[in-house]
Amino acid sequence: MFIFRDLKKAFDKVPRPAMWAVLARFGCPPDVVTLVRGLHDGMVGRVCHQSSLSSLFSINGGLKQGCVLAPTCFSYTQQLC
Fold first, then answer.
1. For residue range 12-66, what is the model confidence (pLDDT) as tens digits?
2. DSSP string covering 9-52
3. Phi/psi of residue 45, each to 5°?
């Protein structure tokens, strides 16, 4: 039996409070958790469509796609949730 998971969509669904708790549970020092949290808190985005930019909007959930820490954080979160 095979299970296919769309990781792009799965990364968007990781609850951030759970990620902070998981990192602490796995023994990450509080300073590291604070650093990773600082990379995610306050994120904003824009959509570009036909050379037109939308206004800024908040990104309040999920992991940063393209971040080298994202796969590790995602993996840890999936093991405990």
1. 677 888 888 888 888 888 998 898 888 888 888 899 999 899 999 998 877 776 6
2. HHHHH--HHHHHHHHHHTT--HHHHHHHHHHHTT-EE--EETTE
3. -140, 170
